[in-house]
Amino acid sequence: MARRKPTAWLVAAENGAIPGGKVGGVGDVIRDLPLALARAGWKVRVVVPSYGAFHRAPGAKLCERISGRFRGQDFEAAAWTLPGAPKDVEQVVIDHSLLCPAQPGEIYHIDSEGHPYETDANKFSLFCAVVAAWLEQVKTPPRVVHLHDWHTGLLPFLRGVAPARGKLARVRMVLTIHNLAYQGVRPLSGHAASLVSWFPEHAGAAAMALDPADPHLVNFMAAAIRGADAIATVSPTYAKEILRPNDPASGFHGGEGLQGLLTERDGEGCLSGILNGCEYPDTDAAAPAWPAMVDAVLDGPGLLDRLPALRPRLNRLREARPKHVLTSIGRIVGQKVSLLLEHVPGHTTALDAILEQLGEDGVFLLLGSGEPELEDALRAVSQRRDNFLFLRGYAESLSEMLYQSGDLFIMPSSFEPCGISQMLAMRAGQPCLVHAVGGLADTVEDGVSGFVFEGPTPAAQARALVEGVARALALRSEDPGAWEAMCQAAAARRFSWDLAAERTIETLYAR
Ligand code: GLC
């Protein structure tokens, strides 16, 4: 008889394999990593909430009814299997009315100011309770449960309070940290969205879930870091950065308050950095002709709704491709864009300084959506600068075109656990200009496959970013041979999911 394949459950908030199941990079990882694990001989079950929507997909099948306790009452939830998954991968979504407190399909909720994480912590604490109950009742528990970010952080806590002889208490749980900036912090008690309200019977074990700085708070991420059997973060450099405290004066983002806990776990040999990968299709997609690319922007789903004034500019742009096309794609959040909006001497922002350099020879296309104030700031630049187009929105097809048509991809993140866009731009042969942090430092080699900038303060970093653009444009204009070699070096780099899966199995899954 053939040996049974080992099984892993990947538990997360996002799954890019499900239409509408992705918001950020976590969704990409949860889409791609299971395929690589399956190629390496594992059977993978991916479990995410249905958010009142995903289980309604045609062909979804009820696979398990799960009962447990939440808020001191019995609950019943349902696990649904979605059709179309590849061999050895099962896509499961959990349905319960409390997992859909707002709009169906809404993954993350933005609570009003002063109520951080309220809605989502209610959702994800129940989600953890459902997965925990399932692990207790399932016939054959998986070899390993692989958690992702704070949303799944209460699972090790629930394992810690489970009956010692049960299945849940004995299952291996490992954690991947995708972004420490989001930790899921809530009151310990005295509020409907607090640990004691969710799990009154486990109030006595709260120490496992407390915030290291404040015993009146619970912290999902801290609970996961404390309780996981092994921890990885998504690049080797970020794994080192998170052992140091943040330092606002130098713009450094590190452990975000959890550096002490992380240093302890690192001392036990439990923390590693495993770089994410990206998929490399067999056939190279040819870059689209320039007018087709501009047409995609013009026709993009709702992209121009809020800025109809861009239309005439795009029509003009369609006629002739500028000499330099800068591109950038990402969520519009401080992490990704604050350096662009940092003041530099002689200019309103670093972005303005870049645009001035570009002049009539170039254009900068930035695609993404996110926080309203930052979007407004970018829209304002777009209004005062003809050569900057802020395309508010996101469309996978358009982003692929930008990767293929741009000359230089800008990724000035203040911190970046791994970063995926730079890998996708490189895959398309577009060199990147990146800040020397986290996964960006691990994927781009200055002067070889792209450009890397750094500085001791945010102001200095912003200046270095502007100089980086100057350096890149000069090379591109003055030494086309060297530029072509750089494009080829970028395209030749391989960030392999098979390698990432192998390391995940060796360092996280193996006992
Ligand atoms: C988070 C991080 C990003 C990383 C992604 C996938 O979104 O901010 O750097 O690439 O997770 O791990």
Report on the structure:
This protein is of the alpha/beta class and 511 residues long. It folds into 2 domains: 236 residues, Glycogen Phosphorylase B (Rossmann fold, 3-Layer(aba) Sandwich); 206 residues, Rossmann fold. Helix content is 36%, strand content 19%. Strands 3-4-5-2-1-6-7-11-12 form a 9-stranded mixed sheet, with helices on both faces. A 6-stranded parallel sheet has the order 15-14-13-16-17-18, sandwiched between helices. A 3-stranded antiparallel sheet has the order 8-10-9. Helix 15 links the parallel strand 17 and strand 18. Helix 3 packs across helix 5, helix 8 runs antiparallel to helix 9 and helix 13 packs across helix 14. The site of alpha-D-glucopyranose has 14 residues, from helix 1.
Spatial order of the strands in the main sheet? 3-4-5-2-1-6-7-11-12
Percentage of residues assigned to helices: 25-40%
The main pleated sheet reads as: 9 strands, mixed
State the secondary-structure class: alpha/beta
The small molecules bound here are: alpha-D-glucopyranose
Number of domains: 2
Measured distance between first and last alpha carbons: 25 Å
CATH topology title of the largest domain: Rossmann fold
% residues in beta strands? 15-25%
Total helical elements = 18
Indicate the overall shape. globular
Spell out the CATH superfamily of the largest domain.
Answer: Glycogen Phosphorylase B
Spans of at least 5 consecutive residues whose pLDDT stays below 50 are: none
Q: Whole-number average pLDDT? A: 95
Q: What is the number of strand segments?
A: 18
* CATH class designation of the largest domain: Alpha Beta
CATH architecture of the largest domain: 3-Layer(aba) Sandwich
- Rg over CA atoms, rounded to whole Å, is 23 Å
